[in-house]
Design a protein that fits this description.
The chain has ten helices and 36 strands. By secondary structure, it is α/β, with parallel strands linked by helices.
Length: 450
């Protein structure tokens, strides 16, 4: 098969009024990535070489953030939001000297999979001039309906506002994803789309009836309804998040991750997890997390930007912040927060502790209530704890400070100076004892009473 090249145009200039947001709609996030980044990801994964995004004036941040996902992105500005047909026209320069397939996608359909885009291209390879991804739904309200001819071919797309009662009863809808075998066909159709409709907009969807009038072949292929959900409101954003999380959970379980209550575990689009990892209920995993083989994440832990080594154990109720790196078999227990710190192999930080900007050596034991005082109000400073060191409970380590290998820190100490390897350091008020003092006090205070 000769592979025609392909170009995608992703429309993202809509105001997204129903989101009630200061942020452009496509900048809202799903599993940590913007709606647009998800669409871009599927487009790239489908092997589409040229990608154009259409934004509105003033949406520079949309173009910039999308360029971070795809460096060769071509950004076009649609001056006024006159409809989806007009939006595609904004990218006409990209189409003019292009001869391959053109796919038009909407920036607000983040669950789209690359396989589905490939299926659409397959229809174009097979000779269709135009292809529309349709889907069946019990709740078609808001979507354009696909009108079929008596032989089951695609005849037209009718927008909800222009539909008759009978047409509104149809459950086969337009996902918004369309493909054109030749860029010049699309340009020609765009030139003839009018705005004589209920919204007074240039509907891209009118291209179907025009193509049919030209005796071109318009084909419909059915997509999974969940995959083409359009996000127009916060409620739809939440529904899409749920679907995305379900997809991530299913994929991780298929790769050998155990979850006792998968519905309560949340992942990021970029989470990486090895085999035989166990994740207990109610765990939140944010951006840039890697969990290696055999690690255990116990209930109610919150993890972002962390690397968890093989066999390590985290939680319950632990918080790992960006830059936390746990080596093999390290233990981080309950009510412990770790930020920008390495925890060495087999080291234990088990209870009620804050470790920030530190390195904890292999096998070191950090006692309950230890705090690295890493911030002086102006700058952050580093704490280094050597291998096999033992930090007694309720110690404050005032950074910058180094605890030598194998050293001991007495409980309750405030350590402000470096400690030599194998030494004992303690800084606390010496204990005093007054014999019989309590008995005397009691006697004095109860004098005169019965
Ligand atoms: C559109 C389709 C409808 C389909 C539905 C699927 C049209 C006319 N209707 O309706 O058939 O069922 O999507 O979700 O295409 N946009 C621009 N510039 C504009 C207008 C829109 O860039 O001038 C962008 C939006 O940012 C959005 C996309 O195009 O990403 C779709 O626009 P939207 O207003 O959400 O269309 P729907 O009413 O959902
Ligand atoms: Ca929409």
């Amino acid at each position: 098969m000769t592979e025609a090249s392909a170009l995608a145009i992703i429309l993202a200039a809509g105001k997204g009024t129903r989101m009630k947001s200061a942020l452009p709609k496509v900048m809202h996030r799903l599993a940590g990535a913007t709606l647009l980044a998800h669409v871009l990801g599927a487009t790239k994964a489908a092997g589409i070489e040229r990608i154009c995004v259409v934004v509105a004036p003033g949406m520079d941040e949309v173009g910039a953030s999308a360029s971070a996902v795809h460096s060769k992105l071509e950004v076009f500005v649609q001056d006024r939001q006159l409809g989806t047909g007009d939006a595609v026209k904004a990218a006409h320069q990209a189409l003019e000297n292009f001869s391959g397939h053109v796919l038009v996608l909407y920036g607000d359909t983040p669950l789209l999979r690359s396989e589905t885009l490939e299926a659409a291209r397959g229809a174009l390879h097979a000779g269709a001039d135009l292809v529309v991804l349709g889907f069946e739904t019990d709740e078609p309200t808001g979507y354009g309906r696909l009108l079929l001819d008596e032989r089951g071919g695609l005849a037209a797309i009718r927008e909800e506002k222009d539909a008759s009662d009978e047409e509104r009863g149809l459950t086969l809808c337009n996902s918004g994803i369309m493909g054109f075998r030749a860029a010049h066909t699309l340009l020609d159709l765009l030139g003839r789309i009018g705005k004589d409709n209920a919204k007074g907009e240039f509907y891209l969807t009118d291209a179907v009836a025009l193509a049919r009038g030209d005796r071109l072949e318009a084909r419909m292929i059915k997509a999974n309804a969940e995959e083409v959900i359009g996000v127009n409101s916060r409620a739809e954003l939440a529904a899409a998040e749920e679907a995305m999380q379900r997809r991530l959970r299913t994929a991780f379980m298929a790769e050998g991750v155990t979850m006792t209550a998968p519905d309560t575990v949340f992942f990021s689009h970029d989470t990486r997890i090895g085999r035989d990892v166990v994740i207990e209920p109610h765990v939140m995993i944010g951006a840039k997390v890697v969990i290696e083989d055999g690690a255990t994440i116990r209930a109610f832990s919150h993890i972002e930007g962390a690397h968890i080594g093989p066999g390590a154990s985290v939680g319950p109720f632990a918080r790992l912040r960006p830059g936390a790196a746990l080596a093999k078999d390290a233990h981080v227990g309950n009510f412990v927060e770790i930020k920008q710190s390495e925890i060495g192999a087999g080291a234990k930080v088990n209870h009620l502790t804050y470790i920030g900007d530190a390195s904890v050596g292999a096998r070191a034991n950090v006692g309950a209530g230890t705090i690295t005082c890493n911030y002086d109000g102006f700058a952050k400073h580093k704490t280094v704890i050597g291998e096999d060191a033992f930090i007694g409970s309720n110690t404050s380590l005032v950074a910058p400070v180094k605890i030598g290998e194998g050293a001991y820190i007495g409980s309750g100490s405030v350590i402000t100076k470096d400690v030599a390897p194998d030494a004992l350091a303690l800084s606390r008020a010496p204990q005093e004892e007054r014999e019989g003092w309590a008995a005397k006090l009691r006697k004095r205070l109860t004098r005169g009473r019965k």
